[in-house]
Amino acid sequence: MKENISLGVIIGNRDFFPDKLVGECRSDLMEAFKKAGVKPIMLEENLTKLGGVETFGDAQKCAELFRRNADKIMGVLVVLPNFGDEKGVAETLKLARLDVPVLVQAYPDDLNKMDVARRRDAWCGKISVCNNLYQYGIKYSITTKHVVHPSDPSFAADLANFVAVCRVVKGLKNVRIGAVGARPGAFNTVRYSEKILQRHGISVVTVDLSHILGHANRLTKEDGVVKERLEKIKGYSPTGRTPDDKLIQIAKLDVALTHFMDEHALDATAIQCWTSLQQNYGCNVCTSMSMMSENMLPSACEVDVTGTLSMYAMQLASGSPSALVDWNNNYAEDENKCVLFHCGNWAKSFLPDIEISTAPILGTTIGEENTYGALAGRTPAMPLTYGRISTDDPKGIIKAYVGEGMLTDDTLNTFGTRAVAAIPNLQNLMQFICKNGFEHHVVMNASKTAGILQEAFGNYMGWEVQNFN
Hints:
Strand content: 15-25%
Keywords: Carbohydrate metabolism, Isomerase
CATH architecture of the largest domain: 3-Layer(aba) Sandwich
Number of helices: 15
Shape: elongated
Radius of gyration: 25 Å
GO molecular function: L-fucose isomerase activity
CATH superfamily of the largest domain: L-fucose Isomerase, Chain A, domain 2
Organism: Rhodocytophaga rosea
Domain L-fucose isomerase C-terminal: 340-466
CATH class of the largest domain: Alpha Beta
Protein name: Fucose isomerase
Low-confidence stretches: none
Strand order of the largest sheet: 10-11-16-15-14-17
Largest sheet: 6 strands, antiparallel, barrel
């Protein structure tokens, strides 16, 4: 879910331009912030000339304000109602030491107000500000239009996207992921580097699957926490033909997983699902994973840590749940459509016809009676952002790809959690995935946020990212 965020605001000024432009700018910004749900942190009008930043002294005052509110500020908006003082802006950010995304906006001139008393020259000033930020090594974003008024719909979209970029960057730099159990032996594809992730602020907390199963087995159906969780499960999804004893098993496992997450303050999990869970405990963990993902605590199967990291990033960008899927099948002869599939762990936001069921493919080898807990459901037509984060160990980097398409209502007669995706240039995308060693797992989100993710991953996280949008 999206929450209001705080942005630091720097209003640039230059002494030979009319000061009233700064005052008018504050009023324009407050209206834009109100619509966007942004809480501004900026200089009071009496601390500098109308609260603008021009001199080094102004920069010191603004930087000190930002440092006092460093725990609140997720990004900084630089606004140029006139040419502005490029050094004042750069010095403020240097002294504040926030290391957050920065968006640079500049006002357009009115063709009928180009006299000395009313001209802005912010078109030129923005170039100078960006030049100085580049020299200082400060990462920044720019508006879609080179100059744009805060009341323009284009700026409203830019501001909303920038807020999303701020959420993604802050979230990724502090995320804690639980790796539950060992990677399934046959799945080399989900191997990853904890060390590379940690270098980027991403922490992984591991636990042996036996620890979770031991905790679950010590619980009984009479325990209050189990009864409570059982009711939540029944309220979450129709249970179909799932026997009561299997529902209790699922509830006990869910209690153990929740305890592990709470104990370590985890934001996401990646869980060893098959085949150890089914053989040693007797059910699937898909229902618990779906409930966690729906509640914005994304959970990926097969201990796909960078898969759940991708889910978390997309969730931050869109404010809605994500799902881990397989690039699974062609769709008839259509080269720009494919089938997305998994045994049954998608958040129910993707599954209006959700039902707790079994995993038929697993059941062929370990007995279908041991696979209750997998969900079944068909995802209807909705927007699609897809993407994947991966550690590239030989190169020592984090890399990613993102793109957009649509989920469709095309006929699909199969089981599990399933969807049909229409993606432009799908064949080129598959070539890229195969040639660059990406996993068979991808993440889907019901949004159009590829640009947000590209900006966050590439510009601010410093990752290698390809946008197929």
